[in-house]
Structures are given as C-alpha cells and as structure tokens.
Specification:
This protein has helices at about 5-10, 40-50, 70-75, 90-95, 100-115, 120-130, and strands at about 15-20, 30-35, 50-55, 60-65, 75-80, 85. By secondary structure, it is of the alpha+beta class. The longest helix has 14 residues, at about 100-115. The protein is globular. The chain has a domain at about 15-35 and about 65-130: rbstp2171 (2-Layer Sandwich), CATH 3.30.2220.
C-alpha cells in the first residue's frame, strides 16, 4: 500500500468542468475550465490586498487590485488538447484584460468555485472523501 504522502501526491482533487462554451469569443468551441491549485490561488489572494503607509497623519491605506484575468488565464484550457489556451501568462492577461468584464467575471467565478474557494472546511473534507471512493480508509 502506498504511503499517505504518495496518496496525497497522486490525488486528482482539482475540479474541472468540460463543455464550457463562450460563443462571443469562439462560436462552436468547447473549453475545459479547471480550478487552480492551492498555491496559485493563495498567491492570487495575497496579491489582491496591499497595505502601504502614506504618512503619520493618515495612517494605513489599503489598495485592492482585481486580477481576475490572471486566474482565468490559469484555468482556461482547450478541451480537445487539454492544454492551456494561454501558456504565456503575461500574454493571456493582456488579451483577457481587454475582453468583456461579464465573461471574465463568469469564468473567474467558475474557477473560484472549482478551486474550492468559498466552501467550508467540512464541505472540502466531504468532497475529498468522495474522491477517494469506497474501500479507502
């Protein structure tokens, strides 16, 4: 029997959704959308909020950046080849940043859901248990 470390390493726990159509971009083509791994999601979350000190009188200022195009570029795949649509992340962000905000937001929310953001720890554990199937303990 494989060690726990090996089982975790080989687990296929990144969710995906097939047959996503974006007719405004490419009519008749189906995309594969995948959640992003924990490290990439945390890096994204950490990049959203930056705190800077302006001066003694004003205290701390918080700036929030939206980088949804980055997450969409990391989660959008060609369904036929299972390869990233934008293997060059910078180019993907540049292209997606100029696309319709509603489409980008919808794809972002799908990737967010597939990445497990917004689910409670208990829901995540139950989902993970379901992925291992019967006969595993």
């Amino acid at each position: 029997m494989a060690s726990l470390k090996d089982q975790i390493s080989k687990a296929t726990d990144i969710k995906e959704q097939r047959d996503v159509e974006i007719p405004e971009w490419v009519p008749g083509v189906k995309f594969l959308v995948r959640g992003v791994p924990s490290g990439a999601w945390e890096k994204y979350q950490n990049s959203l909020t930056r705190m800077t000190r302006r001066d003694e009188a004003s205290g701390i200022e918080m700036r929030v950046d939206s980088r949804k195009a980055e997450i969409v570029a990391k989660g959008l795949y060609d369904q036929e080849t299972a390869t990233l649509v934008f293997p060059d992340l910078r180019e993907g962000i540049a292209i997606l940043s100029k696309r319709d905000a509603g489409i980008i937001n919808g794809l972002f929310e799908l990737i967010r859901h597939l990445s497990g953001d917004g689910r409670s720890f208990l829901q995540k554990v139950q989902d993970a248990e379901g992925d291992f199937g019967d006969g595993q303990s």
